[in-house]
Amino acid sequence: MNTQEALDLLKQKGYKYTEKREHMIHFFVHENRYRTAKDLLENMEADYDGISFDTIYRNLHLFDQLGILESTELNGEKHFRLKCDHHHHHHFICKNCGVTKEIHHCPMEQINEELKQFMIEDHKFEVYGFCPSCR
């Protein structure tokens, strides 16, 4: 997803375009890792004097709900990244810098075998550790 596709999705869902929202989406388009609301706030403060943490957090959760961003819990804090919209995969996530690497193996075949009598609707599989740069 690119910035324009995300903005089009916002409009399609009835949300208005703002320069701040475009800036927020653009920030994640250019990152290849999970980032926090604090990271985004620090990025935006120079351009938007007085921007509040609440504004940032509300928009991040909206983007997450609309499928523009995906989120994870990392070190006790919510982190966000641009949603991968191509093929099914999972992620390795660096606990230090938030960089991600796609994992193409999915453990669901084995898990479905163990849970035959259960109806699974969805799943999320993430592996945490440290990337080569942070080791």
TrEMBL record:
Cellular location(s): Cytoplasm
Entry note: cofactor: Binds 1 Mn(2+) or Fe(2+) ion per subunit. Binds 1 zinc ion per subunit.
Matches recorded under CDD domains: Fur_like
This protein's record includes keyword Transcription regulation: yes
Annotated binding of Fe cation, by residue: 88, 109, 123
Listed cofactors: Mn(2+); Fe(2+); Zn(2+)
Phosphoprotein is among the record's keywords: no
Family as reported in the entry's similarity comment: Belongs to the Fur family.
Full protein name: Fur family transcriptional regulator, zinc uptake regulator
Classification lineage: Bacteria, Bacillati, Bacillota, Bacilli, Bacillales
